[in-house]
Amino acid sequence: MRKWWVGLTLLLLITGMIPIRAKAQQTLIVFAASSLTDAFEEIASAFETEYPEVVVLFSFAGSSDLAAQLLEGAPADVFASANNIQMERVREGGRIGSVPYTFAKNRLVLIVPSDNPARLTSLKDLSRRGVKLILAGPNVPARTYTNTMLERLAADPAYGESYRLAVLANIVSEEQNVRQVAAKIALGEGDAGIVYVSDVTPDIRDKVLIIPIPDAVNTIASYPIAVTHDSVHPQTAQAFVNFVLSDAGQDILAHWNFTSVRHPQRPHQEMSPVSRRVLDAHHP
Known about the structure:
Blueprint: H1 2-15, E1 26-33, H2 37-50, E2 54-61, H3 63-71, E3 78-80, H4 84-92, E4 101-113, E5 133-136, H5 141-154, H6 161-169, E6 171-175, H7 178-186, E7 192-196, E8 208-212, E9 220-227, H8 234-245, H9 247-255, E10 259-260, H10 273-282
Parallel strand pairs: 1-2, 1-3, 5-6, 5-7
Antiparallel strand pairs: 3-9, 4-7, 4-8, 4-9, 4-10
């Protein structure tokens, strides 16, 4: 019996029906901005289906925190930032080994709890005394974009510098990343927060109202991605970057309300009927 089994095994090995050695599994470490959480997890699932020997592990956080970790030597194969400032910071520090590609864009929105306790209807209301405003912390890309927006409003005579200062005085909490801002507003821990439109995910969509920010003062966020210079698996890391840039990756990003760099005209997330009524009430 044993001789028969050994003989059959040798025959299968010779004919290639049993692999002599299974292909080694690779672990790809991706540092990504927290606003990319849902989209990148879906992208990773699709990527792992195409590359079954690869397991993608994420570290999601504010881009500034991720940049600091990378500059301190944290192991990573890919960095996806929510702005070019943090990517350039890491590149200048010698951790980026390829040309960064812009793979998605995003835009800011104002969100309030679904019951809208402060009765906010526009950006102008953020300067009202007593409004509890939650923003991302300093150096987080969403905060950088928000500061740019406030500077543009300060230059508008209809708002002025006093408006900007009053808004900043209403900040009650500064979060490490923009997803924490969205979560706190959904829980009713603040009257308003400024997040990316992609942060209004299905799990909080019925807990917040979206108040759009006019294009004239809004900032379009650009997201760059690159392979690190010391990636353990540089070819696999580049394959992941290529997948993010592919039609499949871009479709996933668009599904999660990012503006695709391949499909820039794809519509943004639709507002809920309640959010639309808030906007219509302010702009009859």
